[in-house]
Design goal:
Layout (H helix, E strand, L loop, with lengths): L3 E5 L17 H13 L3 E5 L20 H7 L2 H8 L14 E4 L5 H4 L4 H12 L3 E5 L22 E2 L4 H6 L10 H7 L3 E2 L10 E4 L2 E4 L5 H13 L1
Parallel strand pairs: 1-2, 1-3, 3-4, 4-8, 5-6
Antiparallel strand pairs: 7-8
Length: 229
């Protein structure tokens, strides 16, 4: 049977300020989707609330809109997937070998406290599956606890969008929290590249995380390597 991967994407369309739009950073999904599709894996999209997932406008402009993301935008079938994502209660976690949390600033609002996401992540992890995230996607791991009550991220080597990158991106003042600091406060062994915005992946057993949008493809490749092992 083909391996199955569950992608998690946001439902949030704006920052706290409604005039500042955000959403899914499309290339973080498309790059991983391409890597997994090349291996013949089955893939499905899920969001905390189900239904549509908005797109981050900044990621749809040159030079950030690369060939992979552009191909997704030009494919009506794939775009339709973004308008009808599954809810957590529609997902059988036992059917998936891996979960992959995408980023975009929207996830900072709807990923951390989603009981549905936490339950599925816990089930996949405790079932021997792979938990992965790229960029802000690691916000989905902030509050996920295992059956024994411990935080999944505690004591684990992990990366994700750094506070330095938030500052350089010019959006630090609009963030609802400092994700890097919050992850460290939960006992995670946070790591980042020496330079901002360059690809950086951290693998700690079955936990695979990438630091920023440029890390999506490499993160998916590490997940694929584990799935093939």
């Amino acid at each position: 049977m083909s391996k199955r991967i569950l992608h998690v994407i946001t439902n949030v369309a704006h920052y706290t300020d409604p005039s500042h739009p955000t959403g899914l950073w499309l290339s973080e999904l498309s790059h991983a989707w391409d890597v997994f599709a090349a291996q013949g894996y089955e893939q499905r999209l899920m969001s905390p609330a189900g239904g549509p997932s908005p797109l981050e406008p900044r990621a749809l402009k040159w030079p950030l809109l690369d060939a992979s993301a552009k191909a997704w935008l030009n494919d009506p079938t794939r775009m339709a997937l973004l308008s009808s994502t599954a809810r957590p209660d529609e997902i059988d976690a036992a059917s998936y070998e891996a979960i992959y949390f995408t980023g975009g600033h929207g996830v900072m609002w709807d990923f951390p406290d989603s009981a549905g996401l936490q339950a599925i992540t816990r089930a996949i992890w405790e079932g021997g599956g792979i938990v992965s995230a790229v960029c802000h996607g690691y916000c989905g791991l902030l509050n996920t606890r295992l059956s024994d009550g411990t935080l999944l991220a505690s004591g684990q080597r992990i990366t994700g969008f750094s506070w330095t990158e938030e500052v350089l991106a010019g959006v630090a003042k609009e963030m609802p929290y400092n994700a890097e600091a919050e992850m460290k406060a939960r006992g995670a062994l946070y790591d980042k590249a020496l330079l901002p915005f360059v690809p950086h992946v951290v693998a700690d057993g079955r936990l695979i995380t990438g630091q920023n949008p440029a890390s999506a493809k490499a993160t998916a490749r590490r997940v694929s390597e584990l799935l093939r092992a």
